[in-house]
């Protein structure tokens, strides 16, 4: 795993956070990695408070946070927002994932 490059957040993801009023509620988008899912690891994406030790990525007045434990798994990943016919959701393009499931929420390294 590449431990040197932080994840990146697209303008589209920051724009979606602005649309839903995350910063107005005092919240940030938390992107975390947990054990589980059909491929070994899964993403946990939710609105949350900023905690001590979080990496804070800022843009357009909004914040995305990643905790210290999840950071190595998300090195050089891209956090984006997708709005397609099948639904709208935040998505992770993770170069550290060796494989992922069809739904895109779990992966293996």
Brief sketch in words of this structure:
Pfam families: Fe-S_biosyn. The protein is mainly β and 109 residues long. The chain is 8% helix and 43% strand.
| Element string (H = helix, E = strand) | EHEEEEEEEE
Stretches with pLDDT under 50, minimum 5 residues? none
Spell out the CATH superfamily: HesB-like domain
CATH class reads Mainly Beta
Number of strand segments: 9
Distance between the termini: 8 Å
Secondary structure class reads mainly beta
Give the helix tally. Answer: 1
GO biological process, one term: iron-sulfur cluster assembly
Organism: Actibacterium pelagium
Domain Core: 8-104
Pfam family, one: Fe-S_biosyn
Question: How would you characterize the overall build of this protein?
Answer:
This protein is mainly beta and 109 residues long. It has one domain: Hypothetical Protein Aq_1857, Chain: A (Sandwich). The chain is built from one helix and nine strands, in the order E-H-E-E-E-E-E-E-E-E. The chain has one helix at residues 11-19; strands at 8-9, 28-35, 41-48, 55-59, 62-66, 78-84, 87-93, 99-100, 106-108. The protein has a six-stranded mixed beta sheet, with helices on one face.
């Amino acid at each position: 795993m590449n431990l040197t490059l932080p994840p990146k957040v697209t303008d589209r993801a920051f724009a979606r956070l602005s649309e839903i009023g995350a910063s107005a509620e005092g919240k940030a988008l938390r992107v975390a990695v947990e054990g589980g899912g059909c491929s070994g690891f899964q993403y946990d994406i939710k609105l949350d408070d900023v905690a001590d030790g979080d990496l804070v990525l800022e843009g357009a007045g909004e914040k995305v946070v990643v905790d210290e434990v999840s950071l190595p798994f998300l090195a050089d990943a891209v956090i984006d927002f997708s709005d397609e016919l099948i639904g709208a959701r935040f998505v992770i393009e993770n170069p550290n994932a060796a494989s992922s499931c069809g739904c895109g929420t779990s992966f293996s390294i």
